[in-house]
Amino acid sequence: MDLTAILNGITDDMAARPDRGAVARYIPQLANVDPDQFAMSICLADGTQLSAGDAQVPFSIQSVSKVFSLALALGRVGDNLWTRVGREPSGQAFDSILLLEQEKGRPRNPFINAGAIVTTDTYLEGHSPAEALGGLMRFIREAADDDSIHIDEDVARSEIATGHRNFALAHYMQSHGNLRHAPELTLGTYFHQCAVAMNTDQLARAGRFLMNAPDMPRMVSDGRVRRINALMLTCGQYDGSGDFAYRVGLPGKSGVGGGILVIAPGKASIAVWSPGLNDYGNSHLGTIAVEVLARKTGWSIFG
Known about the structure:
Layout: H1 3-16, H2 28-31, E1 39-44, E2 49-53, E3 59-60, H3 65-77, H4 98-102, H5 113-124, H6 129-144, E4 150-151, H7 153-162, H8 164-175, H9 183-194, E5 196-198, H10 200-206, H11 222-235, H12 241-247, E6 252-254, E7 259-264, E8 268-273, H13 284-297
Antiparallel strand pairs: 1-2, 1-8, 3-5, 4-5, 6-7, 7-8
Helix pairs in contact: 1-13, 3-5, 3-11, 5-8, 5-9, 6-9, 6-10, 7-9, 8-9, 11-12
């Protein structure tokens, strides 16, 4: 199997497609991103890394960061996290308050915004926001083996200025006793977490700990790797998770910055980026690209 040829073919195909989705406009810094960019990177279990397109261009990973914050929170409190956050698909938009009202302030899963805010609130426990973010960045940098990864302060400020729905979610959860810190502290940490900037080469490397393959970084236990991957499969693409599982057959986590981290267990960590989003809020071309990759490589958890 010639992965380089497959990767280059996918990149050429994506460049030729006229429908590129629409960039996220509710965060001003994301609204200015060039929608014509596309990148894809693959880290294999043997350590080989392949990339194509704009693989050196940094982008805001946004909700892809929730994978790393979940790993950090589970490392801090273990399965006690699940008393505050569920593990079920939401069937609703990522920033919906509907189920939060019905379920008395306990979010459905850690990958919708409300659940991720609780996850951030968990790893913030006992630390200042700066200390908590420092711990998260050390985790991501160690996973990627790259100390240059940083937080884009302009994106963070943009999110703080426009994050009204997230503030509403946080205040609603606080009213039910499911937020341990003042909303501005938890959300300040959360917005900076979402503003981590990475390119696809870095993101693919950072995802290697979820491959559960020999010689890959061991950041969490094997059992937690399996559970994080399970949640990525069932909840990682918001209310498009079922469609993604059907089309791709691999665990993945998307972000409104246009990035998707996809794991082929035991085989590869894959990062794709294209800023234009589909109706679910996931990268339009990125979703197509990983579907094509899975079909051409035969990578699927379903055999």
